[in-house]
Amino acid sequence: MPRANAVLKKPIETPAEAQKRVRNRAATEQAILDAAKRLLADVGFQNFGINAVARGAGCDKQLIYRYYGGLDGLVEAIGTNLGSWVKDRIPDDTGGMFLLTYGDLMERLALLFLEALRADPLMRRIVAWEVSENTQQVRRLSEARSKALAGWIERMRGSLTPPKGIDTIGVNAVIFAAIQHLVLSAAVSGQCAGLVLKTTKDWEKAAIALKRIVRGIYG
């Protein structure tokens, strides 16, 4: 029998055990993050809570506190994750399209952004929150998204120079705002300002109009 004051040594962790522990934690953190994003897309912030996220991730809620420090830390992690949304959703290459001018670039980026936003319900919710709610959580998500979008446009621009005399920041903001409004309106009512947006042909018509606007500005 060991003495009462004997120090119990912690078993030495083997490299294989350490690697497994790290993998398990990384997998759990990702499961929590994915569940939180799904929950936000489905119910928004009103029903967004630790218990609901834990159920969605299939884990103990204490792990959310351990890995993310609670709900605020989890929202912060979602905001950071959204910073790579454009990069993850839209390829850095041009899909085989040879870009000669800044107008070529903006036409391509606008169409890619339209497709990506239509395919992402969480991002649509965040865009809607940006214009309807002014909470710290929404601002955090919005700032991450805006920074990523601006960085993506700048990275894709490379050496292409916009036409002189055009306020590209203002013009591009209006173009992308128009895309966002089209997608949000379509999700709610299936139309926007009389333009039906339900079928593939409807969206092709919208894409043609978008290209004409971009070309009208940038040539």
TrEMBL record:
Name the Pfam families on file. TetR_N (PF00440)
Decide whether keyword Endoplasmic reticulum is in the record: no
Could you tell me the keywords of this UniProt record? DNA-binding, Transcription, Transcription regulation
Q: Which residues form the HTH tetR-type domain?
A: 26-86
- DNA-binding region(s), chain positions: 49-68
- Entry-linked InterPro entries: Homeodomain-like_sf (IPR009057), HTH-type_TetR-like_transc_reg (IPR050109), HTH_TetR (IPR001647), Tet_transcr_reg_TetR-rel_C_sf (IPR036271)
What start-end ranges are recorded for coiled-coil regions in this protein? none
| Top-level division of the source organism's lineage | Bacteria
Q: Does the keyword rRNA-binding apply?
A: no
What PANTHER family would the database entry show? HTH-TYPE TRANSCRIPTIONAL REGULATOR BETI, HTH-TYPE TRANSCRIPTIONAL REGULATOR RUTR
This protein is called TetR/AcrR family transcriptional regulator
